[in-house]
Amino acid sequence: MHNARVTADGARIRWVEIPGRPGGSRTRVFLHGLGASSGPYFTASATHPLLADGRSLLMDLLGFGISDRPTDFGYTLEEHADAVAAALEAAGAHGTDVIAHSMGGAVAIVLAARHPHLVARLVLVDANLDPMAPGADRAGSSGIAAYSEEEFLAHGWSEVRDRVGPHWWATMRLAGREALHRSAVHLARGTAPTMRELLLGLKVPRTFLRPRNAGPLPGEERLVEHGVRVVAVPECGHNIMLDNPEAFARETARALAD
């Protein structure tokens, strides 16, 4: 396990590093979604024969998984992105391929916009692109964002636990409660410009993987017009890498070969 200090107060991001096959020249960083952890969600993908050629960093965002959970951190998407940037700098990972799921995808877009020298290619896995109204999805980030922080710390976290089910809760329970709530609030609020607008303006190769059964993304045609490769992956839900690992590895490898 590796770590790097990413805030002035000494909070540390941690990651598991997989060296890859000898001679592999690429570095890839995997970023998880809200309430998740990169190890459980991405280890099988990082070691898949189609993706195991390069160095892989399975990184946990500040507040989640094996990383520190400071209570004095804001957990905005920009702050998450800057913390990841500091960790990548410490790891000597420049020009990385970033594979990022859900909220991690929103963080990855902001990372690429704010620290362009660190990101060579983006693979966004059903990532958040737009702000959303708090409470729009009771079991997801907007449901968490519907609570005030005081409400969430007092009773909201246990209500969320009962709504999300055992799979998501297995990693969500590891998150700092302030980190979970503030991250959800800022994910629902989005960025200015929005994550979608930032994505449209990026110059790096960009691929967006979405579940085929969910239908086209809002504004998918405009994404394609701006050079974003949108791929509909069959037989999966939001957790594409877990639901259809073979298709995920194949499409991610294809994106990183372009």
TrEMBL record:
Pfam families: Abhydrolase_1 (PF00561). InterPro entries: AB_hydrolase_1, AB_hydrolase_fold, AB_hydrolase_sf. One of its GO terms (molecular function) is hydrolase activity. SUPFAM superfamilies: alpha/beta-Hydrolases. Residues 29-133 form the AB hydrolase-1 domain. It comes from the Bacteria. Keywords: Hydrolase. Gene3D superfamilies: alpha/beta hydrolase (3.40.50.1820). This is Alpha/beta fold hydrolase. It comes from Streptomyces pulveraceus.
